[in-house]
Design goal:
The radius of gyration is 23 Å and the shape is globular. It has helices at 3-12, 14-26, 30-35, 51-65, 84-96, 113-121, 145-159, 176-191, 207-217, 235-244, 261-267, 290-302, 331-335, 364-369, and strands spanning 40-45, 74-79, 101-105, 125-129, 139-143, 164-170, 195-202, 228-231, 255-257, 281-284, 310-313, 317-319. By secondary structure, the protein is α/β, with parallel strands linked by helices. The protein has 14 helices and twelve strands. The chain has a domain at 3-144 and 288-314: 3-Layer(aba) Sandwich (Rossmann fold), CATH 3.40.50. Strands 2-1-3-4-5-11 form a six-stranded parallel beta sheet, with helices on both faces.
Length: 374
Amino acid sequence: MNMLRKLYKVATGSVGAMALGAVLTTGGFADVADAADEPKVYFSMGFVGNNWMTEARNMITALAESRDYRDRVEFEIQSAGGNAQQQIQQISGMVQAGADAVIIYPINESALRQVIRRGCQAGVEFFVINGTDDGTCAHSVKIDGYSLGQTRMDWMAKELNGEGDVVVLTGIPGTTFSDETQRGVEESLKENPGINVISTLNGEWSQQATRARMQELLGTKTWDDIDGVVAAEACYTIYQMQVEAGRTPEQLVPCAAQDENGFRLAMLPEGTTEHSVGMRGYSTDSMIWVIPMSLKFALDEIAGADVEKMQIFQAGVVTNDTVKLCETGSTSELQAGCNVFPSDKVPNDWQAGFWHPDLPQLDFEAVTTGEVSE
C-alpha cells in the first residue's frame, strides 16, 4: 500500500482526521504510517439465520485470529440482517472508517454497485462472494451455482432411470447464487424430459423453512408420490421427515443437495454410525471456505499481489461410493479425504464440506466455535 493511499485511509475517520492534521502541521508521515501498518478489513454479512452463514462467520473469525493472521489484519464483521439498504449504509460506513478491503456477501448485488464504485474511488478493495463480473472494481469469489444445480438434477435423473416425480427446493429466490443454481436445475430438466417436477418450494437454504414447506406439500401429497428431492440444502431434513413418517431405509427417496453432516452420515453404509442407513444421496460441498479464503485474497491484494478479479470454484461431490467418516476430525484425516463427522463433533444440520488444503488453520473446531487449535 503506497503512502498516499495509506494517508487517505487514515484521514477518512475522526481519529484519522486528527492524524492528518498532525501531518499537515508537522510535515511528517511516520506516525500516520505506524498507525496504519495493520490493514483494516471488514466482512459485510448480508444476512444471518442459517448454518452456512454461522459457519462462515466462525471460519473467517478463526482465520483472522490464528497465529498466521492475527498480527496482519484489523478485522471486523457487520451483519445487515437481510436489509439491502442497511448493508449499503454499513459498507459506506466501512469506507469512511478507513477500510483497506471489504468482503461482501450481498443481499442484492445490483443495489450495491454504486457504493462499491464510490469505495473503489477511495482505494478500497472489494471481494464479493458469488458476485458477477459487473464492471466495477470488485473481485468476485464465486461458487459455480449453475453447475451445482445442473449436476444435482443430472444425478437424480440417472438415479431414477430417467423417469420420476421430484420435488425441487430453492435457496433464497432473488439472490444471485440461488437463481444461478435454479437455472442449472432447469437446464438439466430440458435434457431429461422424463423427470416431472411436482412442486418447486422456497427452501431458503434452511432446515426449518424446508420442513415447513414440505409439511405443507405433504398435506396434499404423500411420500409415495415423491420419487426424489433436489434441493439447495436440507437433505438431512428430508431424511428426518421420512424416518419420522416410519419409512424404512429401503423406502427412503434419494436426495441431492449440499453437505449437511447428518445427510452424509445417513449416506454411510447402514450400521456405520447411529444415523447411517445407506440413504441414496448426492452431496455437493457447500464451500464455506470461500469466505475465509477471501480474507486471504484481500490481504494478498493489499500486499501488492495481483489477485484475479473473477475466481470461479467448482464444488466437490460426495456420493455413496466416496463418503468417508472422519473419526477425529484432525487435519491429517481431512488431508486424507474424510468428509463427514460424528455428530458429537459437528452438528447434524451443519455443513461438512468446509475444509480446504490452502487453509490448514481451519479444522472442525474453527467451524463450530470460531476458534483455532494452536
